[in-house]
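Let's practice the habit of predicting before peeking. Look at the sequence and jot down your guess about where helices and strands might fall. Then scroll down.
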Amino acid sequence: MEWLAGYAPPSYAALRPGACDHEITALEETLEVSVPEELKALWQLSAGEDGVNGSGLMLGDWALMPLDAVIAVHQMQMRFQKEDRQDHTGGKDTQVLWKPSWIPFCSLNPDDTLYGLYLDGETGEVCQWTRFGEREQEYQSLPAYLELMAVSLEAPLAAAGPEKPGMMDRALVWGPPSDAERKEQWVRHLGQAPPRHPAKTLGAIREALPCDECEEFDVQRDALDLADTQAVALFRDHWWERAVQAQEELEDEVDSALGGNIMVQPGRKLAPKYAAALPPAVRHTPPSLDDIRSALRHESVRTRFDREFMDAIPPHYPALLLRWWDIARLMADPRGDRAVRAVINNPQTPGQGVSFRP
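Done guessing? Here is the structure:
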């Protein structure tokens, strides 16, 4: 929720309010099922979405279904199952199209429920259904699915799944889109923080200005009559807008710089025109090999890093180092640590399609 609010406001606005206990209980009584706690927790955060730019917000470009759609799809699928049994006298050759414990929660988009994801209440697995009767496991559990989504958003350079987070008109769109026109408009999200506008104080504004404009700021500030509150307000507003513009220009430069390869020796200082290509936390100096290896707390993960670095060619070093720096920072968090170890130790887990290869 916080990520969407900070990085993709239109997507955040598309989320519906969370469901109350009464609404979830009513759904359980209608469908005669028991909803697993992890799905209840998801619905309590948001009971569906309205979609943005024809796409859903969930990993894989799925849309989080409103509860009325959940009920409609479950009842429809159970009806198909009943009709299939009636068509096969004696129950022979009856295909398992749906079980009462299968609870849909994602669909192709808010208006298209012919495909989607459901949670198997008996096994805890997340599976996909299609209009053709196909039922395939996609993820080992709902927490695993949500954790992979969180890792992909919080450390996009380390995104392990086939779908990458990106933006269209500031809205989250997983991609790259297959449609050529939408693909041209789609911009992959690379972990840049949204522009942080300075506080409306003279000190904060000056700190946010480009160095070559600070002298002019100082001259105008020193000439101000501090007793003239209107003049002070006009001065402050003018330079605040300039500081905001400068920060947004820097973010655009970062986007542009990260679009290509950057030649750099690990651990060396970058030229100013390349420094903008790094996240603010490491903009002064890129992380060195030793920095990253010491931050990777598990020997099996270090081994994987060493192998990938040996296989890389110099133009790919910056992207590789930053991606593994993201992984190292994630491992400092217990949730991220578990996700990283799961991917490293089981790179070929069926249905998850994850790999840390460049």
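How did you do? The first helix runs from residue 2 to 7.
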